[in-house]
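Hi, here's the filled form for the chain we discussed.

Project: internal
Contact: R.S.
Residues: 229
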Amino acid sequence: MGLFLSAAFGFPTVLFTPMLVVVLGYWIFVIVGAADTEMLDSVDADGDVAGLSALMGRAGLTGTAPKASEGGGGRRVGQVPVTVTLTMLICVAWFVSMMGSILTTLVDTASTPLLYALGAVVLVIALVAAWAVTSGVVMGLQRLLPGRRSDSKHELVGRTCVIRIGEAREDFGQAEITTAGGASISIPVRTTGGELLPLGSTALIFDHDTGEDVFLVTAFDAALDPGQS
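And the returned structure, exactly as it came back:
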């Protein structure tokens, strides 16, 4: 236990340990419905990825979608959420640096400069490994994510979805919907007028807010069944 704590709070693992704690806390909030998995994703006025999403996309760490005018008939590829990518980066970097730190304890030396030099080498290896593993996983996930056309979001209006994380309200909501191709995708949803939709309930998508890039939903009424599930 002493070796574990020494490695976790020693250089270079100590650089990643606080990040790992934040990541664990974030996913706990996601599980209880207090956070959104797409909270760090952003798009510009043209619907293209921007900000941190664009930066990580250029680094090959998220699946970015080409513009409709750039070929492919306007077909876009699903993007791995930035929060998922950051989680993989931090976890892999922490694990590799942890293992490297434990291995450096086997070096029989009391030279502080040498220990810091070894720590710097472990840090570089951890960062490279984190990028390589995350990039590879993202590429694999990108093939599994359903492609969608630029106007597909509006095509979801009038269909039903199921609330999957916590409860849907005016400032938070995550739902699952089955595409025409049979794939299940997660979409951000919001209610209006103070309406609350509990976990597992069926909701009707009645509009798409392009400004916030969220779907507006209300409790599903069988009398308003659009004929799609």
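Let me know if anything looks off before we file it.
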